[in-house]
TrEMBL record:
Domain spans labelled Acyl-CoA oxidase/dehydrogenase middle: 172-249
Protein name: Acyl-CoA oxidase/dehydrogenase middle domain-containing protein
InterPro entries tied to this protein: Acyl-CoA_DH_CS, Acyl-CoA_Oxase/DH_mid-dom, Acyl-CoA_Oxase/DH_mid-dom_sf, AcylCoA_DH/ox_N_sf, AcylCoA_DH/oxidase_NM_dom_sf, RutC-like_sf, YjgF/YER057c/UK114
Organism: marine sediment metagenome
Pfam family, one: Acyl-CoA_dh_M
One Gene Ontology molecular-function label: flavin adenine dinucleotide binding
Alphabetical list of Gene3D superfamilies matching this protein: Acyl-CoA dehydrogenase/oxidase, N-terminal domain, Butyryl-CoA Dehydrogenase, subunit A, domain 2, RutC-like
Length: 281
C-alpha cells in the first residue's frame, strides 16, 4: 500500500494487504537448530535469523514472498546503520526482492545474551488462487444446475441436482455463441424436434467447465418464435454422440473454458420433458 505522492520507501513497504493462511513466527535470533548462536558478527546474525524464519514458514509451505510483516529488535541501532549495504545484500539473498511491512526498534536487551538482533515475522501464504477456483466451481455448479431447479421436470431434478450438490456431477451453462454474447437473442444454434428427441446443431463458445463437465445445460433455438422468443434449454450429457468440446480457450486464471460443437447431437431422453422451456428468454 503506497499512498499517492509519498516517496517510495527503501527496503520495506508502507503497508501490505493479503489473504490466506496466516503463520506467526516467534522472534528468531541467529541460532542453529540446537539453539546455539552461530556468529558474533551483526550482518551474519541477520542472515542466520532470516534463514531461520524461512525454515520455519516452509513447515507450512510458506514462501519468502508471502511474508507480510517483519519486526526487528536490535541491541544497538548503530550496528544496523553501520552496515546497511551488507544487510541489504544478505536480505536479498535470503528473501529475494520482497519487502514486507517492517519495523525496527532498538531495545535495551534481548533474552539471548549473545544475540544482537531478533526478528519476528508474519507470513500469509498464498492460497488465494485456490479460493478463487473454489468460488468459481461453486458459482458454476449453481449456474449450470439453476435452470434445472427452476424449470426442470421432477425426473431431471432427481437425476442431476443431488449429484451436483455433492460435487459428483459437474454442470455447465452453455449460452454464448461467437456472434451471440450480450445479445443472446441472436443465437443460431438450432434444436429440431425428431420424434420424441431433439437434434442439436451449432456452436457454443466461452463455456466454463467445458471438457470437465458431466452435463451441459445448453440453449438452442427451437423456432416457435423469432428473436428472444423460441429458445429452450436442453440437458446434454458430455458423452452424447455429436457433442464435442472442439477447442480449449487458454486464460490466465485457473478456469477451464472451451468451445462446443454440436453436429446432429441427439438429446438423450429421460422423460417426456427432457428439455426445459425457458419462456423468459
Ligand atoms: C472467463 C469467461 C467465462 C465465461 N463463461 C461462460 C459460460 O460458462 N457460459 C456462457 O454461456 N458464456 C460464458 N462466457 C461468455 C460471456 O457470457 C460473454 O463473453 C458475454 O455474454 C459477453 O459477450 P461477448 O464477449 O460476445 O461480448 P459482446 O456481446 O460482443 O459485447 C462486447 C461489448 O459491447 C457491449 N455491448 C454489447 N451490446 C451492447 C448494446 N446493445 N449497447 C451497449 N453496449 C453493448 C458489451 O457491454 C461489451 O462491453 C464466459 C466469458 C468469459 C470471459
Amino acid at each position: 500500500l503506497q499512498p499517492k505522492n509519498w516517496k517510495a520507501p527503501s527496503g520495506y513497504s508502507n503497508g501490505v494487504v493479503s489473504k490466506g493462511n496466516v503463520i506467526f513466527v516467534s522472534g528468531q535470533v541467529a541460532w542453529n537448530e540446537n539453539y546455539e548462536i552461530v556468529s558474533d558478527d551483526f550482518v551474519e546474525q541477520v542472515k542466520q535469523t532470516l534463514e531461520n524464519i524461512i525454515t520455519i514458514i516452509a513447515e507450512a509451505d510458506g514462501k519468502p514472498e508471502h511474508i507480510t510483516r517483519l519486526t526487528w529488535f536490535v541491541k544497538n541501532k548503530h550496528d544496523y546503520l553501520a552496515s546497511t549495504a551488507e544487510i541489504g545484500k544478505v536480505y536479498r539473498s535470503v528473501m529475494g526482492k520482497h519487502f514486507p511491512a517492517m519495523s525496527l526498534v532498538e531495545v535495551s536487551d534481548l533474552l539471548e545474551d549473545s544475540a544482537k538482533v531478533e526478528i519476528e515475522a508474519i507470513n500469509i501464504s498464498g492460497h488465494v488462487s485456490n479460493s478463487i477456483l473454489a468460488d468459481f466451481a461453486f458459482a458454476m455448479q449453481g449456474l449450470g444446475s439453476g435452470p434445472i431447479s427452476l424449470f426442470g421436470s421432477e425426473t431431471l431434478k432427481s437425476k442431476y441436482l443431488p449429484e451436483v450438490s455433492k460435487g459428483k456431477l459437474i454442470s455447465t451453462f452453455a449460452l454464448s455463441e461467437k456472434e451471440a454474447g450480450t445479445d443472446v437473442a441472436s443465437m443460431i444454434t438450432t434444436a429440431k424436434k425428431d420424434g420424441s428427441d431433439y437434434i442439436l446443431n451449432g456452436e457454443k463458445t466461452w463455456i466454463s467447465n467445458a471438457g470437465i463437465a458431466d452435463f451441459y445445460v445448453l440453449f438452442a433455438r427451437t423456432g416457435e418464435a423469432p428473436g428472444a422468443k423460441g429458445i429452450s434449454a436442453f440437458v446434454v450429457q458430455a458423452d452424447t454422440n455429436g457433442f464435442e468440446v472442439s477447442k480449449k480457450i487458454p486464460i490466465t486464471s485457473p478456469h477451464p473454458l472451451g468451445t462446443i460443437t454440436l453436429t446432429d447431437c441427439r438429446t438423450l431422453i429421460y422423460t417426456q420433458r427432457s428439455y426445459i422451456s425457458v419462456k423468459a428468454l
